[in-house]
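Exercise: predict the fold of this chain.
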Amino acid sequence: VDERNGLVFLWYDRAGGPPNYEIPVLTEYGDPAWGPWDVKLLHIKTHPREVIENMADSGHFPCVHGTHVDLFENEFTDLRCIQRIKGVAYPRGGGRDDFELEATYYGPGYHISVMEGVMASRLLLAHTPVDEHSIDLRFGAMIKKVGDEAKTKLYSGMYVKNLQTGFEEDIEIWENKLYRDRPALCDGDGPIGKLRKWYRRFYAPAPATIGD
């Protein structure tokens, strides 16, 4: 058990092994120039892999979220999956947000996005399997303060509401799609195969059977 960035983390390994990576310190947490986390919980009938595949699915941003993408790239390291995007978001409430984003998964279920745009923000995702068919997804946003505490709280609430709308658009797909081990990909779908290869390292090995 560890406390990091104002959150409590529990490591579980069914074989009893120790953690093989650290949750990085987020320097913005506790900085007086930044507001606190505004956190929500969503229960989703999907596999955690589906959430992570958004990291490589460049094609869904304009079609599902109405986001124009100028730059999209991925980087896969030993225990990190990184997504970099530059583009224009059009919030459902109106307006235009020219943004740059770097999103990083540290391990299979903890994600931080560093986003610069109309507002500087940090987005947290943490999803945990509940059973074979569902997950709990916790997400939170932290924004750089804009005026006094009341104004920051108002803007943060609006920002989180817009994020939740985006998740609800994804959930419609996650809860109804069919998994294909070898999907027929189109131009612009992104490196789904590379992401799946990276993610497989986090699966527990299958138990040995008689004759193995």
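Check your answer against the key: The two ends are 36 Å apart (CA to CA).
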